[in-house]
Every structure is written in C-alpha cells, then in structure tokens.
Design a protein that fits this description.
The chain is α/β, with parallel strands linked by helices. The protein folds into 2 domains: about 270 residues, no CATH class; about 190 residues, no CATH class. It is built from 14 helices and 19 strands. The protein has an 8-stranded mixed sheet with strand order 12-13-16-17-11-18-10-19. Strands 2-3-1-4-5-6 form a 6-stranded mixed sheet, sandwiched between helices. The radius of gyration is 22 Å and the shape is globular.
Amino acid sequence: MIRIATAGFQHESNTFSTIPATLAKFELSGILEGDAIRCEYASSQSTLAGFLALADEDPQVQVVPLVFSRLTPMGAITAEAIEHLMQRITTAIRDQGPWDGILLPQHGAAVSVPWLDPDGELLRRVRALVGPDVPIGMALDMHANVSPAMVGPADIVTVYQTNPHIDAREQALLCGRLLLRTIRGEIKPRRALATPPLLVNILNQGTSDRPMSDLLATAQAQRQRPGVLSVSVVEGYPYADVPEMGMSFIAITDNDQALADDVARHLARAAWDLRQALNQGGTAITLALEQARDAVQGPVVLFDVGDNVGGGSPGDSTHILHAARAMGITGLLQALCDPDVVQKCLQAGVGGRISESVGGKSDHLHGAPLPITATVTAHSDGRYEETGPTHGGFRFFDDGPSCALRTDDGFTLLLTSRPAGSASLQQFRSLGIEPLEMKIIVAKGVHSPRPAMEPIARQMIWVASPGVTTADLSTFTYQHRRRPLYPLEPQAQWP
C-alpha cells in the first residue's frame, strides 16, 4: 500500500488590510483533522477533493488527511497563528508516518509575521522532516505569488488554470497523479519557474476573456510538446506586498530541464507581449449605476471590485449604495457584513422594523455607514450548500447569523456576520430572496461570483470602486515588491 499524507492551510493575505488573520479566526473557521476533513471536502470540487480522489482511482493508494484549515482572505497571518498551524501540520506528518509521498493543499499568496512566504516556509519544513527521497506535491491557487522556495523543494506543483476557479479538483488530481508516478519511478520531474516583472490587473484575470484566454491557449499548445507533464499560468496576487508579487509560469517535464526552461520562458514572453492588454481599467460607480438603471431588463450585476471579499476586503463597503441612493435607484440587492445590526434584526424578529446605520464600519476605505429604515424579512444561521460550480470548488458555506431586510427606499439587503462574497445564489435564496427578481445585484467580488451570476445576468459591469482591493494599484504604498514591475513602472524592460 502506498501511503500519502495531505495537510496544509490556505490563506490569501491582503497586506493592505487592517484585519489580521489571528489564530482565533482560524479556529472559528475550523482547523480540521482526519475524517472531519474528508466529511467537509470529499464531496466538493476543491483541492482536497482532488487529492482524496486519488485513492478512489487506485486501490493500492491510501490518502490520509491530517490537518487542514482555510480562512477568508484578510490581512497577514499573525505569528501565533502561523506557528500553530505549521506545528500542527508538521507534528502530524512526523507522528503518523512514514509516508511514500506528501500532498500540500496550499494557496500560495499567504503572508505572515515573520515570514513573507509562509507557503514556502511550510514546504521547507516538510522537506526537512521527510528527507530528500519522499516526493512532495503541492497544488496552488491561480492567484499565488510563486517563489523559488515553493517550486524548488517540491517535486510537483500544479495551479488552477481557470478564474473563476472551477478546476481546483482537476488540478489537484493531476498533482496527485504525477506524484504517484514519481513515487513509482515512472517519471523524474524537472521544474522551471519564470517570473517576468509583470502584474496583471484583477479586472483582466478572467480566463474566459481575452487577453487571458489567449495566454491560456498558448499554455495549452505548450502542454502538447513531448515530455511536458504540466504547464501552469499563474496570475499572481497584487494585494500581497512581497518580493514574488506578480505573474509567474511553471513548467514540469519528465527529466528534461532544458525543455522545462524553454516552456516557462516561452509563456513569460507571451505574457510580456500582452502586458498592456492585461492592465485595463473598470467603470466608474456613477456610470455603472446609470447603465444598470437604464438597462431594459435585469438583473444587471455590478461587481464591487474594491470590496472583493475573496481578495481580502471586509465585505461592508457602502460606496455603491450611497451613490445609488443619491440617484434614486431602487430594486438593488447587496450583501453587507454587519454583525452588530444582524443581532438587532434578530431581536426585532421577522416583520420587525429597524432604524440603523449599516456597513462602512471596518475602516475608512469602504464608505460611511448607510442610514436605513427597514423591515426584517428573514433570518438564518447563515449556512447554505451549493452543489453547482463555485469558485474554488467549495460546497458548504457559513456566513454566520444573517438576515434579510427591505429598506423603505427600495433596497434589498442581506446582512451577514462574517465577510461574505457572492459565490452562490443560495446565499440569497436561503433567506427567501430571489435574485432573478432584482433589477441590480451588487456582487462582492471580481471573478469569484461569476459561476453564480453569469447564468442569470443580462449584463455584467465591473465597477472601479475604492477599497482595499481596488483595481487602481497606484493607490498602494509597497515596501517589499520587486522593482521595476509593469505597470507600476511603465518603462520596465524584460528580459
């Protein structure tokens, strides 16, 4: 029997967020062990589902889930939290071994105190623990900021190749299959990493849209070359201020380093040639609302780029709501994180009336609280299930205690106790809100809501709203990123 351990953590750390990723937050989200991991993820389309499925394909393989935790994006991980997670993971690997292989379900854009690259630090520790001869595979999010420390010690690294991320299970299963072939001596992986000095704006990261779709087509052509095992286009995450911030490209071949180097360089050059097209802007708030108001049919989906919960925003931005009120717009649906008002709604009960100020309480970047008078129409524990496609392949969601409100001036608001994106229509339907009946839906995200929203949207508009995930990267002060980096330094040259 071939025994493979899987353990890790996932966090996308927005270093411009003032909300730290504490141990208490990880514990509230869940630090799962053993069968609890299998129960939560095996039936999903997530990374862990792909790793676990490896055992279903081969009766000679046992995949053992050890420790796993994931947390909604926010600020950097605290020293206490990251050390706790790493100790839990490495202790489990040590105590429950020996192992024939290790699978790490990481994200790749984590930042912590004191490590700017905790994903790489975890890989270093695991490699030191198991020695040089135990193959290690790692599956990453497409928004990873990939470092040499992630690629060097690993034998196999695969990355989601869709945004929204609907192929997490597929890429993880590929990682597991290649790891298994490595264990059996069928292949000898050779890896190459190319990191041109290039950012891609979050607005241009949808893989079904040009120019990103053109770059993915180039990658697919490279996969057809004899000896190539895996090719990954990595978009990067521009809200993590680290030296590795930016696009990267990973190629894995069977014992052919020159081929791996050539494939990675080829893709990097293709991306560099598209650098201008990869950095276009969005639509101003007022213009977006005018277009939505004037649309013949709805729903018109407005993606609130500056309050992208999946990128580390707090989920309580009111910029669009204030503008909509000033314009006299009605028929608008939006989720907001406001745990204090949720509690007041629960006290009022269904049918109760409240007069409160909602949202805009996390910091100074996401608008002022919005005064409302409203009727409570529903409440729930905030848990719902989505069996259709979701960003990241997740199935079970927990927004914390939640309530639905109908304001006197024509807004429908869903208030949550935790920052919540709009990755599933069940978020609304679980509280009796039918999104199809709305003229305008404000979605907290950029690409993550697309699997939910595209099937119902008559029109989709990406709004250049302010916030900690704004598309205007010139508003951030970076301390650690490499320089020059296009487009922040428009005159950057490469190679």
